[in-house]
Amino acid sequence: MSRWYDAEAGPLVRPYAMTGGRTRPGPNHIRLDLIALVDIAPDAPGPAQEALLGPEHRTLLALCRLQPQSVAELAADADLPVGVVRVLLGDLLQGGHIRVSRPVPPAQLPSEKILREVIEGLRAL
Length: 125
Prior knowledge:
By secondary structure, the chain is of the alpha+beta class. 44% of the residues lie in helices and 11% in strands. It contains 6 helices and 5 strands; from the N terminus they run E-E-H-E-H-H-E-H-H-E-H. A 3-stranded antiparallel beta sheet has the order 4-3-5. It has a two-stranded antiparallel ribbon with strand order 1-2. Helix 3 packs across helix 5 and helix 4 crosses helix 5. It is elongated, with a radius of gyration of 21 Å.
């Protein structure tokens, strides 16, 4: 059972309470795709500054310490809505706690002309 949800009472902590009513990450409205990889920043602030963060922020940092994870994985592992995780990650990014990288884009698909030539070559065999 989810720790943020009680079957009888519903959610124990509303998402807007975790984000302070914000729905977008950071003042620059940073775009955090579901597949963006999140890792601890090499020059991240120390434990003293982490202690000032909320429990959800600290949970996300703990998950990132294990290994780089995507935004979607963090949301699932932290048992938080993706929108909330994006806002919290925006806070952590602004504070220098994490870094976000984009995965390598998929290779370009070959053109239709090349595919047709391959098919014709296979038929000729």
